[in-house]
Structures are given as structure tokens and as C-alpha cells.
Amino acid sequence: MKKIPKYIESAVWNKEEISDPYQVIAESFSSGSLVYYRKNIKKIIHFSFSEYSWKENPADIFYRFGLIEKIINAAYLINKEQKKNPLDIRPSDVFNPNLYSSRWGVNSDWENFPRALSMKEFMNPYLVLRRFFEYRKLSEWKDLLRSFSESIFDTQNIEYESVNSYDCLTIYFHLVKLLEAVHLIDVREITHIEGRIKNKFSKSVI
């Protein structure tokens, strides 16, 4: 009997098997920009840890949770490869937009800049993936997302035994760092989506 992968076993919204995690990353950033994901993480954390509840369409927010879970699944598989950074990037390259900014998106270089990452993480984004799953296991991140999705429409404080008001910022920064890191991998290493060159696509609108 085929063993069920951990990312499917712990799935909340996405139960599809992933054959190429890099393509999942590329498709995710064709669906939404880095700015879009940053804003959503901020809103999710805000409504999960405050007395305010989400007022938008529930289907819309669950779609966003699904996108984030898909990125986490892909990052988990990439991290399992224990891949070393294939590019020789130096501190002097930090302002080179070719290393961090998508050429076919609508956002500016400043908006695409990975401001949550350290210099070492900018040069080697694979460090972020490793630290993300060292901070919490895959199943724990899934439990956390599930807890967020349940509390975001409620005015009560989030109920999750290992989460409290003191580490919400840590959770926020780990999620943002992960998004920025996989975005760097997408910009630097992934040239196509399903065989089509990225710059042949129409520009992202979100």
C-alpha cells in the first residue's frame, strides 16, 4: 500500500499530490503577488489575535488559506531535498532587482524587496525553509492554520494551546519570511510554468 505523504496526511484544504514543488511555487506567484500574500498574512494574524472578526466572504478567505497551505506544502518538499543554494550571491548584489523582483508582475521593485529576511537569508533563501520547519513541524503549522481559520470569524481570542499573544509576531515573521524566501527561489530559479516562459504571461493583477 502506497504511503500517504505527510503534507497530504496533514492537509486542511489541499489534498492534491505534488509532483514538482517548484511548479507549485511558480503557479502560486502567478495567482498572487508577494504583496498580495504579505497583506493576507497580516490580515489573518490581525483577526486571529484580536477581538475583531473577519467581515469578508468566507469562501474568499478559505481560498487564501488554501494558497498559503499549498506554498507550505511545496516548501516542505523542497526543504526535504536539503538543497544547497545554486547561485553565488554576495552582499553587494542586494540591490540587484533581477535577484528579487519578478519581471512580469505589476508591483514595483521596492514592493518585491524581501524586507523581512536577513542578509544571509537573502543570499541563501533555503535557510529560511529549514528554520521555518525547525520552529514548527509541518503538522503543527497545519494545526495553526486550521485554528486561524476557525477563530478569524469569531470575536473570541484564538484557542490553540501553543499559541499566545506573545508569539503572534514570531508566527507572522516566520510566515512572511517563508513567502519571501520561496518568492526569491521563484524569481531566481524557475523560468517557466507548465512549459511556458514566465515573461510570456499577462501581468498579475493582484
Unreliable segments of 5+ consecutive residues: 200-206
The level of helicity is 40-55%
Number of domains: 1
Q: What is the rounded distance between the termini?
A: 42 Å
The computed structural class is mainly alpha
Largest sheet: 2 strands, antiparallel
What is the ordering of alpha helices and beta strands?
Answer: HHHHHHHHHEE
- Whole-number mean pLDDT: 81
| Portion in strands | under 5%
Q: Can you offer a commentary on this structure?
A:
- This protein has about 210 residues and is mainly alpha-helical.
- The protein has one domain.
- Helix content is about 50%, strand content about 0%.
- It is built from 9 helices and 2 strands; from the N terminus they run αααααααααββ.
- Strands 1-2 form a two-stranded antiparallel ribbon.
- Helix 2 packs antiparallel against helix 4, helix 4 packs antiparallel against helix 8 and helix 7 packs antiparallel against helix 9.
- The C terminus is likely disordered.
Q: What does the secondary structure layout of this molecule look like, with pairings?
A:
Blueprint lengths: L5 H4 L11 H11 L2 H15 L9 H23 L28 H4 L6 H5 L2 H10 L2 H14 L16 H22 L2 E2 L2 E2 L9
Antiparallel strand pairs: 1-2
Helix pairs in contact: 2-4, 2-9, 3-8, 3-9, 4-7, 4-8, 7-9
Offer a few descriptive terms.
52% helix; disordered C terminus; 206 residues; globular; two-stranded antiparallel ribbon; 2 strands
